[in-house]
Specification:
6 strands, 334 residues, 13% strand, 13 helices, alpha+beta, four-stranded antiparallel sheet
């Protein structure tokens, strides 16, 4: 779909302008010419004329602001002339419709009422949004109460993959789970005996990306690793080598080099945005609760569940959903 078509759709036939124009313009071409001269002197020049249609700069730019944000810059830049042509087309069609009395059609009246309600509702929502303010002290309190959410660990790991692992390396002998675990335990003993963790990672790790960097994973927060790995890493003491920890990738030896917290200044903006949205939503829920709405159970009845389709073969007893995936953070390639 062309961008100009999307712009015209975004304009939605300029609801604000259509509603303001409850009667067709009665200006003549001569009057339009006079208006052009007068408005040019007041800083709101006429920028488009077509017969007795007169479009001022302020009206045109107000219409531009009704576009979705992603199209406004285009319509104000390289697409301005095209938008002007689309806007004029809308005005010409509206004028024809008014002359034909289509504004009195019940369906059109219903749509106009809906558009008006929607505009006023959005204006009220903007007022509610503006009324919600959160001070630094309140945001700091929220940060302190949820500080664990902003914890990060910096860690290294060594991965020993087993057969079927996404990290299994082509050309290397395939290990059973038992063999992979035993190898990880042996490597842990070597490290405890004086072998350097980074050297062992470079030589043995099946995570070739981090392995080439001595097992370095960098800093990561909650939700960035598969659950088993995350739980172990966040519970580990700095400097300790823990494991083997089993994940879908294989068995890991993990060494945490630091536990840190993203400072308040680094997350203040995101906390403010999240809490602002929650506060606005709470006000809307309160508005609904106080109104005590009643919905028709008959009209809004839940749809009946569809009968299961018959199958010639029985379904398997258990099916593991394909959406059940956890993605481990991947280190940058060297």
């Amino acid at each position: 779909m062309k961008k100009t078509t999307l712009i015209l759709m975004g304009l939605a036939l300029s609801a604000s302008v259509v509603m303001a124009q409850e009667k067709p313009a009665a200006t003549t071409t001569a009057k339009a010419a006079t208006t052009t001269t007068a408005t040019a002197a007041t800083g709101d020049p006429v920028i488009i004329t077509a017969g007795d249609i007169v479009i001022k700069q302020s009206e045109f730019e107000s219409a531009l602001k009704t576009l979705p944000a992603e199209y406004q810059s285009y319509a104000m830049g390289p697409g301005k002339k095209q938008f002007g042509e689309d806007y004029l087309r809308m005005k010409m069609l509206a004028q024809m419709g008014y002359k034909a009395g289509l504004q009195n059609d019940p369906a059109v009246q219903q749509q106009l009422a809906l558009m008006k309600d929607n505009l006023v509702a959005n204006a009220q929502l903007a007022q509610i949004d503006k009324s919600v303010t959160l001070g630094d002290a309140e945001l700091q309190k929220i940060y302190d109460a949820n500080k664990k959410d902003y914890e990060q660990v910096k860690a290294k790991h060594i991965l020993i993959a087993f057969k079927g692992s996404p990290a299994a390396q082509a050309g290397k002998p395939e290990l059973t789970e038992e063999q992979a675990k035993a190898k990880a335990e042996e490597l842990k003993k070597q490290i405890a005996g004086g072998a350097k963790f980074e050297d062992v990672a470079k030589k043995e790790s099946d995570d070739t990306g981090s392995g080439a960097n001595g097992g370095e994973l960098g800093a990561f927060g909650h939700g960035q690793m598969v659950p088993e790995f995350e739980t172990a890493a966040f519970a580990a003491k700095v400097g300790d080598v823990i494991g083997p920890i089993r994940t879908q990738y294989g068995y890991h030896l993990i060494r945490v080099d630091s536990h840190e917290y993203t400072p308040f200044a680094g997350v203040k903006a995101s906390i403010e945005k999240k809490e602002h949205q929650k506060a606005v939503q709470a006000k809307l829920e309160q508005l609904k609760t106080e109104a005590k709405p009643v919905f028709s159970d008959t009209y809004f009845a839940a749809p009946a569940a569809a009968a299961p389709a018959e199958s010639a073969t029985p379904a398997p007893a258990t099916v593991k959903p394909t959406s059940e995936k956890h993605t481990e953070k991947k280190p940058a390639k060297p």
